[in-house]
Amino acid sequence: MSALEVEVDGKPLKLSNLEKVFYPETGFTKGQVVDYYTRVAPVLLAHLEGRPLTLKRYPNGVNGKFFYEKECPKHRPEWVRTKRIVARGSTKDRTHVNFCIVDDLATLVWAANLADLELHTSLSRADDMSHPTMVAFDLDPGPGTTIVECCQIATWLRTIFGELGVEGFPKTSGSKGLQIYVPLNSGATYTKTRTFALAVAELLERTHSELVVSNMKKELRKGKVLVDWSQNNQHKTTVCVYSLRAKSRPTVSTPVTWDEVEKCLKKGDQDLLAFEADQVLKRVDKHGDLFAPVLELEQEVPKL
What we know:
By secondary structure, this protein is of the alpha+beta class. The protein has seven helices and 17 strands.
């Protein structure tokens, strides 16, 4: 398979193995991965901009081995921006990681060419890691539950947020669950956001113990949905909106409306909130960026 030399916004790139099939069930190729990220970039880049990126690379497709890469590859082009950030569990020998920062289309295409199927970003911007710009609630269905049950919990979350005077915005995980983001953009600390997220998760567990669990132990999750509050941590990442997922089909972490959440719950049909790359591009053409308010809306962390 020959390499293709291209220029993206004036920056030279060499793309390789574009014919390689990355999603065998559908025949979706590496070239289609690059094409998807190129076409979704007008809405995606704002959510990547300024945030440290953890690469999750699948050089032989979704059925092959993968690896996470926090340290930005040394063979990167000179124009790829990096940010040196204090690492978790720092020692005297290794105190920092040079993360990739994807601020432009050329860097995004370069990452896609590295088979970085999934984009995992921090809730903070690289220049201010101690202050998250949002709170994340990851609704993860246990055995016997689906995204339909996640939709029920999402509506309960929305009611709580309404009583507290804040807004939340839903997106699919692109896998099994649903994620609700509460934009802040107001200088909150992780101490506050983590405490708030835990308190909300525990409140839901007390009031809806038949369906909700806030404890991470897997043995507690049968027939229930984990309201994962633990993602609100400076050293953790979450899958970025519009990111592909390494599943059997090229599904995407997709922003959805509250009407769509309620429709999925009412009809009990999990397929209503399953979107693949081509569907997401059509949705963007129709709706624009449904997740734009997460970047723009300024809210304070509520007190429970």
